[in-house]
Amino acid sequence: MLALLKDFNFSIFPSAINFRIDVDRLYSENTLRNNDPNNTIGLYQSGYGTTFNKNFTMSRIYGIAWNLTRSLQLDFNATNYSIIDEPDGRIDGIKRDTVWQNLKRLGRTTDYNHNLNVTYNLPIDKIPGLNWVTVKTRYGTNFNWQTEPLSTLRDPNINLGNTVQNSRTVQVNPTLNLTTLYNKFGFIRSAGSEDGNKAKNFFINILTSLKNVNASFVQTKGIFLPGYMPTTQFFGLDRATGAPGLGFVFGSQRDIREMALGNGWLTTDTLQNQLYVNTLREDFQFTVWLNLLKI
User: Fold this and answer.
1) Quick check: helix, strand or coil at residue 110?
2) Is the pLDDT score of 189 beyond 70?
């Protein structure tokens, strides 16, 4: 049982922390000149034939890895995509101030996504006599928030809302190392040296031909909720309302439609015709290793 306590070994500091900001701006002007020699109107006075191509984006990427104990690990990674909105036309004068203000606000978030994974090795192999059994488990979650299209966002007559979705994955991987189990029995360990008892060796080889057994069970559930009005600030939560709740952003599969409706989180626009969706997937794998060479 001392092995269980030694394996706990809690760590109060993260193993790694990362943070990165990527800013990308494209700005170009294209003007078609009037080559008529009789044209006397200045180029910039008329604005004749000038088109603008602008794209100003920002990505904030951050994460943490934490080996809480020797058997328990946690990692969290998030990415926030945003657009720095720019006024129409050439950027000069007061328009520059508008761009700087939007940049200082870190832009308008269009997509937020994070993943959380918690892995734990059950300490079954630390129990005396069960060192041939290992069980690895994983709890994984994903959360995504996406804004509605800019064309409808700027239309006061349309209110489609944003979309949020999450998923939760539970995975269990047991492994039976039967060779380690067989070696606990003296008559099996000595079987190879008993050349005179070939029949006994033959039956022991048959008995011990199964070397390893691996299994894997993975269950993934998900929720898709359209017409979602709140924004996203910290870990996908809305600063003012706390929507959609810590449970949802970290994988809870509780049906939140009634709560969202009661708190005014959902649009009432009849043009919003996307459906609330639940998903479920389950996978099971079973693998065995046989060694028949000695039979």
Assistant:
1) strand
2) no
